Each structure stands twice: as C-alpha cells, then as structure tokens.
Amino acid sequence: MVVGQSDLSNETSGVPSAGHKQDTTDSDIQAFRAKLSKSKRIVVLAGAGLSAASGIPTFRGNGGHWRKHDVLSLATPAAFIGNPSRCWQFHHYLREIMFKSTPNAAHVALARFALPQLRHSLSPGSSFTLITQNIDGLDRRAIEQVYQEHGVPSPFSSDAQRQPSGDPVLIEMHGQIAGVLCTNYECRHREFNHDSPICAGLAGTKILVEGVSEGDAKTSQEQQNSGPKRSAAEARAWAEARLAGLKQESESPSADPDIPVEDLPRCKRCGALTRPDVVWFTEVPQRIDEVMHVVENADLCMVVGTSAVVHPAATFSTKVKENGGTVAVFNIERSKRDAVADYVFLGPCEDLLSRVLAVDEDR
User: Chain-centre distance of CA 48, in angstroms?
Assistant: First the structure.
C-alpha cells in the first residue's frame, strides 16, 4: 500500500497506492496500525529526513563554504590525519548548528512510541529499537524528554530497566556530533562534550565560513537581523576569525584558517588530540553487531526519512522482508527501496508519524 502520488507509484514499484499526506485516509492508517498491533519486535531505521523539520542542513545544502570541498577532504580518517584543522572546523560548524536545533514532531512521535507504557496501548508486548543514521543527537534528546515527562528513568541511565528482548531503545550507528574520541590508542577515552565552542581555537570559525559565499552571507545577515545579537565575546571571536580568514584569502583564495594542532580539542584524560566521535566514510558503523542482531530479529521495520542506499543500512529492510516481516516506508519522495515495502507513506515525517503512531493518550 502506497500513501502518496498514486499514478507514479504504480509505474515505479507495482505497489498499490493511496494518497499524499493530505490525501491519507483513516483506512490507510488503520491498516498499518492493525499490522503494528500484532508486531512484537519493531525496528525503525531513521535518516536525514527525520531531522529536516528541525532545520538540520544536508551537507550539500546550507553551509556554502563546505560545498567547495570534496567530502573525502572533510569526513574520512585520511582527511583528519592530513588536515585535522579543516576537519575540526567542519565538525564545529555542524556542532553549532545541531546544538541549537530542537526535536521536531517526528522525533517526539518516535520518542513517545519508544516509551513502553504508551507503545503497548498500540502494540501490546512489543519491543522497540530506533536505529538512527543521524549524528545530530535529536533522537536521544526527544527520548530523554518524553521519559522525563512521564516520570520514567532515561533508558540511557545506569538504572534503566532493559526491554524483555534485551534490545536497546536507541542505537546511534553513526555516532553523535557531541561525541569526542581520543586519538591516543593507549587511551581511547570517549565522551559527550556539549561545550560551545568545544575549544577556544575554533571560536568564531562557524561565523566565518557561513559568510564566505554571497548567498550564505545574505542568509547570515538575515539571521543576525532577526535573531539575538552577538555577545561582546562572540563579536571579538568573529572579528579575529574574519581577519585571519581575510589574510589567508589574500594568500590563497581557497585557504581555510589553519588552526595549530595544539589548539584543537584535546583529551581530558591524557591531553592527546581528539577527533569527532562520528562514523566517517570508509569506517564501520558503531555497535554494528547490536544493529544486525536487532534487524535480524525484527518482525516490522519502519524506514523513516531515508532512501537507505548506503550500506549496511541498505540491507536492513530487505533482511526483515526476507525473514517474513513487514516493511513500511515514511519519506518525502519515492526511492528504489520502496519496492520491498508493504506500506509507503509519502509526506513530511513530522506530519505522518504524528498521525500513524498516535497512542491512546493522544487520541
């Protein structure tokens, strides 16, 4: 059953169709909810579309300064070894954007469904795991908020009660932007660091790179006019970074500010250089054994806000389907992976999930 763009859907996948978000009927939703009510091990694979309504930009979207760089120069182990300054500036840019973002209605809908006392009113006796490809940390924040509102210990706390299945509530398979990892192999300390900026050496570089291109400069100016004014410290940091950038631009039009390695984020335990604790290209996803165990045992897979074309995530829905499970896709547009889906809901995730996962408390 496809919910959205009926004519195109029939041509591209051969799966029956219904309507777009505004055309989604109660019967479409009830058909999926009936299947959900009988499912016992539910897994959600989430991608960038889940965070779109929170204003999280894609790499090829906002942040014009970084569009001139090949991704291999920003987010690979080799890139970090070759130019840790550039890599940290890029990830600092992401940190500042993601820290200021807040969970949207789609995050909240999944977080509420993650809470057993709410989920079991729709899917009795089921377990739930959210496997996210996103590094923004919004899934974790939404879950912690919902659990706190209902007086339930965070599932990430040491005293949290495990699900009967033993499966975790959340797996951030690509890490999280707040994470830092020591590069000293004798230490390898990892932790979440929400400092903004994470170190003095990176202060102001986000403001600098946002203003490089004409389009980004206009956007940055509009944000300054409509948003809060910079503090004196922020203004000084911006001026210093801008002056450093202008000096380097005169030497090389494509140069980035070159921050000395000793001024980049350091390990709090041993003092060595740290790196962002996120999964870069060519690296294996974090907690991959847990991920594959959850997917292998799932009887219902919801693919949310992702085309799931990058491995190993590309295999998840197929694996569930091969094991006799049900696959439902929630996305803004069609993708090749829809061919294995039993249900395809097209539209903004924040609208669809709020309706499809509404529990008794919401109705």
Answer: 6
Measured CA distances, 231 to 197, 207, 209 (Å): 14, 13, 19
Give pTM, 2 decimals.
0.81
- What integer pLDDT is reported at residue 241 of this predicted model? 58
Residues 173, 135: Cα–Cα separation, whole Å: 9
Query: Residue 41: in which H helix or E strand, if any?
Result: strand 41-46
**Which residues are tagged catalytic?**
174
Q: Are 206 and 96 in contact (CB under 8 A)?
A: yes
| pLDDT at residue 255, rounded to an integer | 56
Q: For residue 181, give Cα distances in angstroms to 63, 80, 265, 297.
A: 25, 13, 10, 31
Enter the DSSP assignment of 257: P
Candidates 351, 345, 361; CA nearest to 1 is 345
Chain centre distance of CA 260: 30
Instruction: List, in sequence order, every residue forming a beta bridge with 179; answer none if it has no partner.
Output: 192
Give SS3 for 163.
coil
Residue 11, number of CB atoms within 10 A of its CB: 8
Dist CA 277 CA 362 (whole Å): 37
Where the chain has pLDDT below 50, the residues are: 4-22, 60-64, 211-227, 230, 246-254, 363
What's the rounded Cα separation, in Å, for the pair 343 and 304? 12
Torsion of Cα atoms, 197 then 84 then 278 then 60, to 10°: 90
| Tens of pLDDT, residues 325-351 | 999 999 998 887 788 999 999 999 999
For the chain, how are helix, strand and coil distributed in percent, rounded to 5? 45, 15, 40
25 CA to centre of own chain? 29
Q: Quote the CA–CA distance of 96 and 99 in Å, as a whole number.
A: 5
Please list, residue by residue across 314-324, b when 16 or more beta carbons sit within 10 angstroms of its beta carbon and e when fewer do: eebbbbbbeee
As a whole number of angstroms, the distance between CA 69 and CA 90 comes to 10
pLDDT in tens, 86-121: 999 999 999 999 999 999 999 999 999 999 999 999
- CA angle 112/46/129 to nearest 5° reads 55
